[in-house]
Amino acid sequence: MGLICIDLFTTLDGVAQAPGGPGEDTDGGFAFGGWQAPLIDEVVGEQIASGMAGMDALLLGRRTYDIFAGYWPQADGSIARLLNRLPKYVASRQARNLEWANSMVIGPDVSSAVRELRGRHTEIHVIGSLDFVQTLFAQGLFDRLTLWVYPILLGGGKKIFTDGVVPTNLRLVEPVVSSPKGAVLLRYALADGTPGVGDMSAVDQAG
């Protein structure tokens, strides 16, 4: 059974809108497109590359697919070669003409599509695709969540976690690593059950 792995870049206040460039996503008048660029460093670059080592398919939202399709086919390097040869699945409610090689639409029934992809691939990565990720969160359709958290606050913009997120347990699967410019890598696995509750007064009395 294949894994669905979500990879996201976020500010400390949870904004994940348009990390890559000024024109990536200006919805809501967002003025900080490309906020990640001044904070990228070799450590994060190496983490991204190593995290892609086991990836054998991409699952993307429509907007992220269009951005990737406009850039990676003309790019060079190991990541470009990997992304260009991999199967790419696009979540879209409408039929689309997909020109990037090895691309196809998964259709409106996300749950069924993800189940089919799990049977076809070993490690499917969802990169960016923030609107689509909300659907995956709401339906519990993911196995790994990797966050690069950057030391800035933007105040406004699309957030990773919205009101559609269901109560969910996660488990940290590797030590937390920080980069020279302050980005923190957090990699989680989906865990069973829902968050528990308790009474902190009992902890205080025990101390």
UniProtKB/TrEMBL annotation:
Molecular function terms, GO-annotated: 5-amino-6-(5-phosphoribosylamino)uracil reductase activity
Coiled coil: none
Ranges of residues in domain Bacterial bifunctional deaminase-reductase C-terminal: 4-174
Domain of life: Bacteria
One of the GO biological process terms: riboflavin biosynthetic process
Pfam families membership: RibD_C (PF01872)
InterPro entries hit by this protein: DHFR-like_dom_sf, RibDG_C
Protein name according to UniProt: Dihydrofolate reductase
Classification lineage: Bacteria, Bacillati, Actinomycetota, Actinomycetes, Mycobacteriales
